[in-house]
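Lecture 7, part 2: worked example. A protein chain together with uridine-5'-diphosphate.
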Amino acid sequence: MISILCPCYNEEAVLDLFFERISAVIAKIPEKFEFICVNDGSKDKTLEILKNHAEKDSRIKVIDFSRNFGKEAALTAALDYCKGDAAIPIDVDLQQPPELISKMIEKWREGYEVVAARRDRATDSWLKKITALAFYKFQNATSRYEIPANVGDFRLIDRKVIDALKKMKESLRFMKGLFAWAGFRSCIIDYKVEKRMAGESKFNFWNLVHFAIDGLTSFSTAPLTLWLYVGGGISICAFVYGFFIFIRTILFGIELPGYASLLCLTLFFGGSQMLGIGILGEYVGRTYIESKQRPVYIIREIYESES
Ligand code: UDP
Ligand code: MG
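Predicted complex, written out as structure tokens:
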């Protein structure tokens, strides 16, 4: 059996379309299927629509969160509750073509434990293209675990990988990083991102910035180490410059001008210290959150049809 994992947050406009299209796809595949749909604290009719579908189709199971916990938490819950021999997380906005599922299963039968789908970026704005490129470059330069560029959560993962993911207890979960960290025999297939069929994207610019910071800090402490080098470099420069001033004063006496250069240096060092403390704070904050060991999500109720 294959589990299809669907995180849903305010998706009333697109859900019917999603089930219609994916049902047509899986009807042609011999494997059995189940759907684990997570209602991530939607404020619209998402839950009602999901429950309707679950009543009509016994393959659909609905997990209702007590509030919005974010897509990473929704995926975590779906992975915890799925029973398939493999799972496929997919967005419900149909940006990721469900038709790819049969190709993923084919690769899985060939023996791959992870079949990841890589998107194109043809429809993205230049800003998004550049920031995404910068993110993957920096991420992979600083971390030992390579996250392949432009590969998101849309992928098939074998039961072995699901079990490995369930053992990761951290509460700040950067899923595509965790997938990469787990390893296993992987392959990548390409697809073209489609337009969102209805509704709107839940990730604005600042969500994505925070998401990127989550990714960078989850898998490496290189940004902290970087400050060791920056601090060390600045200290050496300061020492050399101090020595130079000392000699100059002995040889030529004291001269007063130098206000501008002093101010520049003060501002520069003030700024870089703040930045260093900020990065340090980011890690301390994460340690604090992890130390509380709160659950990643809270479930209000689980719905599935009687049969
Ligand atoms: N999503 C979620 N919780 C959130 C935000 C998003 O479950 O807090 C789901 C959303 O319903 C969709 C998927 O995550 O199925 C991807 O979201 P979206 O399409 O808005 O992201 P984008 O494709 O714009 O990156
Ligand atoms: Mg989308």
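The chain has a mean pLDDT of 91. DSSP finds ten helices and eight strands in the chain. Keep this in mind for problem set question 3.
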